UniProtKB/TrEMBL annotation:
Transmembrane segments: none annotated. Residues 19-42 are annotated as: Disordered. Residues 45-150 form the HTH LytTR-type domain. This is Response regulator transcription factor. It comes from Pelagihabitans pacificus. Gene3D superfamilies: LytTr DNA-binding domain. It comes from the Bacteria.
Length: 151
């Protein structure tokens, strides 16, 4: 049986990772109007490597790719690793340096080297030699235009 990361709340305080492993009943979670930690952007992503769990700093992550209820993390070395978080969860917890460009991808703006127009309002996002490019979808073309203008 594996470990689910959703039973833990990860947050950072002065670059230290803290883990709140207190389990709350679903009723307790509903009573709190706004979970105080849900608005704090996460700074590290837990990655499964064999039986171990590594914490990768988000500044080293180039993009996330959806895979079922999990996601793959692509780091700046071009390595692909499995993450226990879904893109929906990541989208709500990542900081402003990340943007959703496709239902399948969330990219780190800081690692984008080039954006090329493609057919029908889509774009190809290039990161570097070792990292595979990502294709945006037409429905996220407004997000890409914001990226091009560098807000």
């Amino acid at each position: 049986m594996g470990i689910g990361f959703f039973q833990y709340a990860f947050s950072t305080t002065k670059n230290h990772l803290s883990v709140d492993s207190q389990k709350k009943s679903p009723k307790q979670k509903q009573e709190t109007p706004q979970n105080s930690q849900s608005s704090v952007p996460i700074s590290h992503i837990p990655i499964k490597k064999g039986e171990n769990i590594l914490f990768v700093p988000i500044e080293n992550i180039v993009y996330f790719e959806a895979f079922d209820n999990y996601s793959f993390v692509y780091d700046k070395k071009g390595e692909k690793k499995l993450c226990d978080y879904s893109l929906l969860f990541l989208e709500t917890r990542l900081g402003e340096e990340f943007s959703r460009v496709h239902r399948k991808y969330i990219v780190n703006k800081g690692h984008i080297e080039q954006i090329k127009p493609h057919l029908n309002g889509r774009y190809v996002i290039l990161f570097g030699n070792q990292i595979s490019p990502v294709m945006s979808s037409k429905s996220y073309s407004a997000t890409i235009r914001k990226l091009i203008k560098i807000e």
